[in-house]
Known about the structure:
Layout: E1 15-16, E2 22-24, E3 27-28, E4 34-35, E5 38-40, H1 56-62, H2 72-111, H3 125-132, H4 140-167, H5 173-180, H6 182-191
Antiparallel strand pairs: 1-2, 2-5, 3-4
Helix pairs in contact: 4-5, 4-6
Amino acid sequence: xxxxxxxxxxxxxxxxxxxxxxxxxxxxxxxxxxxxxxxxxxxxxxxxxxxxxxxxxxxxxxxxxxxxxxxxxxxxxxxxxxxxxxxxxxxxxxxxxxxxxxxxxxxxxxxxxxxxxxxxxxxxxxxxxxxxxxxxxxxxxxxxxxxxxxxxxxxxxxxxxxxxxxxxxxxxxxxxxxxxxxxxxxxxxxxxxxxxxxxxxxxx
Length: 204
């Protein structure tokens, strides 16, 4: 029976003619014999041609990292001009502040050195830095006392842990290390001029 050749082939190799009839075209076997054409009854769908069911939620979950943020490209293109305008505004504001600071510092220098702040009540930048600088150097005696307080606290905790151990309590490894360091803490305190209780030694 003559068939009208078509280019429409399914996954199973079924061709559909212009009249709508479906068949598997004839083919040649490796030994040279010819397989005859097989008609496919209407309505039959081989397993190869059945579409695999795809759950939209599962597909979306599988491709969740590849797509990026939905709508991000549109936002970028919309926001770019706005960003440019915002940066321009910020640059203009900065320049205006610099000019204002320069003009106030000039007026202050003309008025005299005893004026503590600018006309709007804000301290001038240069004087503010000078005022902030003096508190930086700390008294070494105060530093030494702070360090001694820390060491005394550690020593007190270590002694408490030692008492617990003597009563029969089980100590954690880090607690045991603290107990071992008692003598070292006492030596550090003595080197700083303090006794084992954290009191300053009387100078002889």
